[in-house]
Write a structure and sequence with these properties.
The chain is an alpha+beta fold. It has a domain at about 175-285: CO dehydrogenase flavoprotein, C-terminal domain (Enolase-like, domain 1). About 35% of the residues lie in helices and about 25% in strands. Bound molecules: flavin-adenine dinucleotide. Flavin-adenine dinucleotide (FAD) binds near residues 32, 106 and 162.
Amino acid sequence: MLSYTAPSTVEEAVRILAGASGPAKVLSGGTDLLVQLRSGRAKPDLIVDIKNISGISDIREQDGVFIIGAATPGAVIGECEALRQAWPGVVEAAKLIGSTQVQGRASLAGNLCNASPAADSVPALIAARATCVVAGAKGRREVPVESIPTGPGRTCLRPDEFIVEFHLPKRPPHSADTYLRFIPRTEMDIAVVGVGVSVTLDTRGVCTEASVVLGAVAPTAILVPEAAAALVGHNCDETALSELEQAARRACKPINDKRGTIEYRTKVAGVMARRAAVIAYERAEERR
Ligand SMILES: Cc1cc2nc3c(=O)[nH]c(=O)nc-3n(C[C@H](O)[C@H](O)[C@H](O)COP(=O)(O)OP(=O)(O)OC[C@H]3O[C@@H](n4cnc5c(N)ncnc54)[C@H](O)[C@@H]3O)c2cc1C
C-alpha cells in the first residue's frame, strides 16, 4: 500500500527516506510524479512530501547570492523581480514550464530530478553555474546542477538524499542570461531544443566570460565549452556567432523521434544557440 508523509524539517525528511523499507519518492509540486503514479510508471511504497518544510518554497538573497527553495513553484519564481533582474534567463525558463495551473506547483527540483533531457529550467540553471544543496544521512553537500541528472529519468542522488535549495551565484556587473526553446506548438509542448546562455562583458562590450548549455539534444543537458569560448574576447560579432553555431552543432548527440530527426535537431540547436547568445549579449549591453 502507498503511504504518504509530510515532514516539517529537513532532518526528519532525511530520517524517513533513510529508514524507508521500500522505494520512496520525494514530492515537490507533483506535476510529474502524480502523472507517473497514475500511469503506473512510478510505483513507490512511500511518498515524502517536502512542502511543509520551512523555507523550502521561498526565495531569498544573501550578499548577491539567490537561494531558491527546492519546492518553490514557477509562479513564485516568475514574480520575484529581484531574481528576474539578476537572472532573466533562469526566470524565463522556469516560467515556460507548463500552463498556469502547472506553474502553481512545478518546481526547479522536480524539473531537475525528473531528469528529462528536455527539462526547460535545467540548461538555464547550468548556464548560470547554479549549485544545489543536497541533504542526506551523511549530511549536506553542494553539487553543481549539471552533476545531478545522469541519464533520462536517472539522477546521482542516493535513496536517502533530496535537494533542499538552489544557489545562483553573485552576478558580476554587465552580465545577463537567456533561455530559448524551440517547440512545434506555441506552448505546452516539450522542447525539440533548449538553449541557455549566460555572458559577462567588460566596459567596452567585449565578452569576458560565457556559458552555453544545450537541452534535448543528448541524454542530459550539456555544457558546450567550445561554444562559450567562441564568444569570449568578442563583441558578439559574426565570426563569434558562426563559430558558436558550429560548436553547438558539433556537441549535439540527439535521437530521432516524432519531434524531429537527428539532422533537424542538430541544425535547430545551432540556430537557437546563436539567437540565445545575441539576446544574452544585448541584455548585458543594456546593463553597461
Ligand atoms: C501539463 C504539463 C505540462 C508540462 N510542461 C512542461 C514544460 O513545458 N517544460 C518542462 O520542462 N516540464 C514540463 N512539465 C513537467 C513538469 O511540470 C516539470 O518537470 C516540473 O518542473 C516538475 O516539478 P514538480 O515540483 O511538479 O516535480 P514532482 O512531480 O514533485 O517531482 C518530479 C520528480 O522529481 C523528484 N523530486 C521532486 N522534488 C525533489 C527534491 N527536492 N529532491 C529530489 N528529488 C525530487 C520526484 O521524486 C520525482 O521523481 C509539464 C507537466 C505537465 C503535467
